[in-house]
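Table S2 (text version). Query chain:
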Amino acid sequence: MSTLENENRTVVLAYSGGLDTSCILVWLIEQNYEAVAYMANIGQDEDFDSAKEKALKFGAKDFVCLDLRKEFVEDYIYPAIQANAIYEDRYLLGTSLARPCITKGLIKVAFDKNAAYISHGATGKGNDQVRFELCAYALKPDIKVVSPWKIPEFYDRFKGRTDLFNYAAAHGIPLPVTPKNPWSMDANLLHISYESGILEKPECPAPDNIYQMTSNPSDWPDTGDLIKIEFKKGTPISVKNLNGQELYSDSLEIMNYLNKIGKTHGIGRIDIVENRFVGMKSRGIYETPGGTILYHAHLDIELLTMDREVRKIKQSLIPRYSEIIYNGFWFSPEADFLREIITKSQENVDGSVTLLVFKGNVYIKARESIKSLYNETLVSMDVKGDYEPSDAAGFIKINAVRLRENYLQRGSKF
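Corresponding structure-token output:
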């Protein structure tokens, strides 16, 4: 028997049913792989039954779909909310958080199917190739990766999306995207992202009809939604609409409801140029309705309940932690270390935040906590309390020592 016949050629493909992975599935089979199509349900609007039928029709030997929605919310989104994680001041890391969740499921299927290989459709220029593969190697160091967009035989054959469309047409592969609207989308419970096509020109505005998770300003209602979000150790445990009295306490229901409210009022839409890990700038459009609401609510309850100096240290680490997530190092020692610190910092972050969601904005209206560090008597301008105002004179003089010495050394600025 040949070496090829003896080799374990089972590959688990991270499959979406879109243009790239549909073509890659057929191409892998042409290369004599036995392909298992894998999908992760992380909240995207997808017809999984149709995807299964399509994958099996075009040669996959098996199809596996894992429902990871709750795991995605509780093990990835909520820890990011606890951290106030945000990349380059604006991006709430929707895709970056989804990739380790998807890859963990991918490796699970590889173990279950005794597969020697995994494969994905991420391009050779983007961040996702790094995220998928770093996470895979962290979870199964001996796994082999077939990444077609880094294989010359593949990318020389398929020089662009037109070649992929032609290949799909030749093989009878039905596709949901057309050459007329060729931007790519990635959706999950936290967000949806858009890139490529006309969006590669940062000077060109995105068309109004592109958006799916947030409404356009012309459609915003004239009445806002007043909601209360309750936190326990920095994690959302319930959301209540104070207008309609709807109440949700299940993590998945909380996320879905906040996405619904955020969509109505156009919350969390951004159009940015960001720095990819691989060294280039890219333009991305993101909609993160529920995540944006949670981000602002958590910031507020954290400030009420967390010691000032603890929070300074914690927040100083978050740009680096966000970068670690963005770059694909979720399953790294440094990420584990920082999550331990962040979890410790959240021990007293209990309480509720009342906020108004209205016309593209999140307005904090009130907050309360039994672990609040806010002392009304101490801070009041009308009550002296346990504070001696004259002590402030010495405090100011001590802090002015450095400034006076600087004046003596540098001279007057006038």
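Notes on Table S2: DSSP finds 14 helices and 14 strands in the chain. The two ends are 90 Å apart (CA to CA).
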